[in-house]
Known about the structure:
Alkaline Phosphatase, subunit A; three-stranded mixed sheet; membrane; metal-binding
Amino acid sequence: MRRLSKTIIATAVTCGLASVAHSAVLPDVQSSSPWFTDGKAAIDKQLAQAPKSKAKNIILFVGDGMGISTITAARILAGQREGNTGEENVLSFEKMPYSAQVKTYNTNQQTPDSAGTMTAMMTGVKTKAGVINIAPDTDRASCDTASGYELKTVIEMAEEKGLSTGIISTARVTHATPAATYAKVPERNWESDDKLPEEAKAAGCKDIAVQLVELEAGDGIDVVMGGGRRHFIPETITDSEGKSGKRTDGRDLTNEWLARYSDQAAFYVEDQAGFAGLDLASTDKLLALFNSSHMQYNADRLSDVGGEPTVTEMTEGALEVLKQNDNGYFLMVESGRIDHGHHAGNAYRALDDTIEFANAIQYAMDNTNPEDTLIMVTADHSHVFTIAGYPQRGNPILGLVKSTDGSGQPKSQPSLASDGMPYTTVGYANGLGFADYGDGNGGDQRYGDDAHTGRVDLSSIDTTQSGFHQEALVPLGSETHAGEDISVHAIGPAAHLLQGVIEQNVIFHVINHAAELGGEAYQ
């Protein structure tokens, strides 16, 4: 059950007492920011051209690192897995009626990071790379300069209005993208107190995991699912995977979370079996931490101790809990490991996770009402992931390039580069480069090895299997993000506001307007 204060607020809204949004609920540093006011102006312009609309529920899907080339390649791979040529395929969210092109830069970086980009979507204000929900007038990793520049997030506003809230991530729930839904911290790496400098502790800064459990808005987040268990338990405790916690303060935040909601049907689970055993329709609060660190890639998840649910299964479970609230809900679902697959130079896992992400989105579309639920699908940034060469139609997207001959007929042998060796359709502009761990292996294993410079003869290598890592032009310890625009796709109330080319912080204003969260009045 929601607390009485939320019921009173919701009643006021129903009676029309709160039908006009008030900017007073946000700190001045947020509502007066040029990023914020420019975003509001963009929405006002759109509203002048279309009828107003109200959303009871909001679902924001964020494919971390899911740039346009990733969407295209995943679309083709999904189609080829179904026995088709692939190019004609359409992913679930590509069927949505509205879309826009989104600019992703941070205030201090041309190519962004997830902390700054997700802050823009959650608060309406762009900020620096590495900084979570702190205005850009501060220094990274500085508690002193951050004080007074904290920004309020969509989740906090939704909680204050009486909506249910949830976050899902296949990464650690304290990682930058999910953390930006609730935490305010000048350094994204402060996931638990072991990373928090002594001067930051003395200045009153709290680590991200603590901020999740102690969130004061409303009665806190209702559903939290993902990885990152190690940041919630002390170093003296060994979890179900046999791994120790990271906390040096002795706090077990999972127990603190259960104690906070002892008067409700609150549950904490660590694996697939525990999750499957829940009666979600009778659950008020759910904390599920399925891995010590990030959850497994979709291709690997069944090999983990106890097993892990898919992002589709987590989405289904979250909606089962959240839909009990008659006031509505806000849910953020992140496919975080798309990003990690790319960083490792492993296109197979990045694309496989994208396909599963599209399945989760399809589930949400099939099990919500488009008349009262706004669903948006976007990314925080892209990657230096390319689709190139001149492969023939239907060529395996993860395979070697086979072109057509002079008459336009397909060739049976791979095309050769100027060095006399074949090459793949997809590749990376930088990163760790080539590796072949064999089918069923790879992924994060790549980070433990040196970068591979130069070209490799791929003639006898199966480049379509999961252990293959594509070649990269510039050798680096990790492939990097890219700076080009990404996309947002939308269906439901206020979806029409997402058209053309927009700044990333405008996404906040669409959510704010659609759900009438009270952060700012629009036309």
